[in-house]
């Protein structure tokens, strides 16, 4: 099997469908996070020694201010002998103004259960027609900081349903049944 695409240096990334045989000290993942998706791809990152943007993608359709949104991804640390990957996600508008930033995410190496789901909830400001999703490296160590990202998801969430009841401790059951029917 040709693993030339595994020959990353810090600051580079590639699409890959398995990490088996990439590096002797890396976790060998036979497939991406999606169960049964043997030929699926994940983003493999050899984290840089400098903090900064790793990856950026743009969402250009289907956005509405009527919903709250959740952005999520599955991440696995590939190397347990150095620094854990430390990242955060940013959501930016079409002028690249920051809309929302996730909290600091540190992905611990766990060979038995490698994949961790991370997410951030946000609202879209009025007039926003596209979004950038940016993955940012917070680590500044060359050792470790190697990871994979899969199943990026951008999903609308319905507005919360607010239920309220009378302040009175006495409830007219006939009136309640009439209101519900």
Describe it.
There is one protein chain. The protein contains 1 helix and 10 strands, in the order E-E-E-E-E-E-E-E-E-E-H. The strands form 2 sheets. It has a 5-stranded antiparallel β-sheet with strand order 1-2-10-4-8, with no helix packed on it. Strands 3, 5, 6, 7 and 9 form a 5-stranded antiparallel β-sheet that branches. With 181 residues, the chain is mostly beta strands. The protein has one helix at residues 173-180; strands at residues 12-16, 42-46, 52-59, 68-77, 86-93, 98-101, 105-106, 116-123, 131-137, 146-157. It has a single domain (4-180), classed as Jelly Rolls (Sandwich). It starts with 11 loop residues before the first strand and ends with a helix.
Describe the structure in brief.
With 181 residues, this protein is mostly beta strands. The chain is built from one helix and ten strands.
Note the main attributes of this structure.
about 180 residues, Jelly Rolls, five-stranded antiparallel sheet, about 5% helix
List the helices and strands and how they pair.
Layout: E1 12-16, E2 42-46, E3 52-59, E4 68-77, E5 86-93, E6 98-101, E7 105-106, E8 116-123, E9 131-137, E10 146-157, H1 173-180
Antiparallel strand pairs: 1-2, 2-10, 3-9, 4-8, 4-10, 5-6, 5-7, 5-9
